[in-house]
Write a structure and sequence with these properties.
Largest sheet: 6 strands, parallel
Helix content: 25-40%
Distance between the termini: 23 Å
Number of helices: 15
Number of strands: 22
Strand order of the largest sheet: 3-2-1-4-5-6
Length: 458
């Protein structure tokens, strides 16, 4: 597939890296010659220095043959115009744009992005998606990652097996036998820097990060079985009152009014603005690394500090300081991949990678077949995928014990007629079932084949 990416920053680089690894023909456009030089030197992509919305630059990048344009520059207006030009002049079928300003995404303007107006097929708001991720983490303390699928009825949780984890040394088969009524399946395990799909005889070990797919009503019980019974935070301090921090605070006010929220914002004008917009949250002006200000925010009594500034160093240092002052847990936004490798050793309990969140939203529309949702884990080493089974799918009509799934794929749950089903040997997938599965990076192409739209379907 021929893909044009406008923007060679962190997000653009990550998308280019992933798509080029999968054999796509990728061209990257950016006004920065050093960024283009860096991306073409390290990845198998072509680069064009220029303005992503200019027709001649898009033409040079091969827009006349492109099947998709992904505009992820730092400027919404450039992203929108790039999609408009790609549509009007080059008839590019699929147009994806990163839109950061919430003004464009207000419900009353929902018709703005359409073929008759601004022709954007998919508008991705990183701030909103990251904000939702933060809220999910807050809702399920003890989980290091949380993603919802199938109309929020199925949840994937990543759970760390601590030394006191009750299910350590239990095999996958034993877990099924011990908890037959629990709709939860361990679909992937990250151990010693290696991610793999477990077989029925594989056992959980201390230090493992288990990726578990379960019914939403069974998440807390699943966390408890893994030894995680942390209580939901009642007092939260948010460092950073930007779009993400404001979204999180406002949503908590609306849906969890008993939760007490305090925000620390370094920009005075922004602090005043969000204070006027929020009902009960307390907004403090200053630095999240100011020990006196943290104490003024009653950090010693806080259950959780969530660091959401645009500066990784401030997020890390502020969160570590908060825990030293008595805060029970921290959750940190980290943009720089190299920081994520040693975050835990610094005293970071959990972190969120905004690039991974944005990448997952884009991959959903890159994947072929009836793919409804995609979430990449461990920097793209694997994906949790929700796909719809068609009548022509080779999965339909065959009992699970007789299915010969490619290596690297494990089915976690089936969503059928409003019900969540845990796979067993006798179960058969039916047409229109929504299947949530875990697939390693090498196996993703097989998933696309399993859920492809065959000519027989029409």
């Amino acid at each position: 597939m021929k893909v044009i990416i406008c923007g060679a920053g962190r997000v653009g680089y990550g998308i280019a890296e992933r798509l080029s690894q999968e054999g796509n023909d990728v061209s990257v456009i950016d006004t920065s010659a050093p960024l283009i030089a860096a991306i073409t030197d390290t990845l198998d992509v072509s680069g064009v220095v220029g303005h992503g919305a200019h027709p001649d630059v898009l033409a040079k990048a091969g827009a006349d043959q492109a099947e998709m344009i992904i505009a992820v520059t730092l400027h919404d207006e450039i992203n929108m115009v790039a999609c408009q030009v790609a549509h009007s002049l080059f008839k590019v079928p699929t147009k994806i744009a990163r839109i950061r300003a919430q003004n464009y995404l207000a419900p009353e303007y929902s018709d703005l992005f359409s073929r008759d107006d601004v022709p954007i097929d998919v508008a991705i708001s990183p701030e909103i998606e990251v904000g939702k991720m933060v809220l999910r983490r807050i809702s399920y303390p003890g989980a290091t990652d949380v993603v919802r699928f199938a109309d929020d009825r199925i949840v994937m949780v990543a759970i760390e097996c601590m030394e006191d984890c009750p299910v350590v040394n239990a095999s996958m088969r034993q877990l099924t036998d011990l908890f037959p009524d629990l709709k939860a399946t361990v679909t992937g395990i990250y151990r010693d820097n290696r991610l793999f799909v477990p077989h029925s005889t594989d056992e959980l070990q201390t230090g493992d990060l288990a990726y578990v797919v379960c019914e939403s009503t069974h998440v807390r019980r699943t966390l408890s079985l893994f030894g995680h019974e942390e209580k939901e935070a009642a007092r939260i301090v948010i460092a950073g009152g930007g779009n993400i921090g404001f979204f999180v605070a406002k949503t908590i006010e609306e849906f969890q009014p008993r939760t007490r929220v305090k925000i620390i914002e370094s920009d005075r004008d922004r602090a005043v603005h969000i204070a006027d917009q929020l009902k009960s949250a307390v907004v403090l002006h200053g630095s999240a690394m100011d020990q006196k200000l943290l104490q003024q925010a009653d950090i010693q009594d806080a259950d959780l500090v969530v660091a959401l500034t645009n500066n990784d160093q401030i997020n890390i240092l502020g969160s570590v300081m908060a825990k030293k002052l008595g805060c029970k847990q921290n959750l940190v936004l980290l943009n720089e991949p190299s920081f994520q490798d040693f975050a835990k050793s610094l005293g970071i309990d959990a972190h969120i990678n905004p690039r991974a969140v944005t990448m997952s939203g884009i991959l959903q529309h890159v994947r072929k077949g009836r793919i409804r949702s995609v979430y990449a884990v461990q920097r793209g080493s694997a994906e949790v995928i929700e796909a719809e089974a068609l009548e022509t799918s080779p999965l339909v009509g065959t009992a699970f014990r007789e299915l010969e799934l490619p290596d690297g794929i494990r089915i976690g749950a089936i969503y059928r007629d409003g019900n969540v089903l845990r796979p067993d040997g006798d179960m058969k997938i039916k047409a229109k079932d929504r299947v949530v599965l875990f697939a390693t990076g090498d196996a993703v192409r097989h998933v696309q084949q399993l859920f492809r739209v065959s000519i027989q379907y029409f």
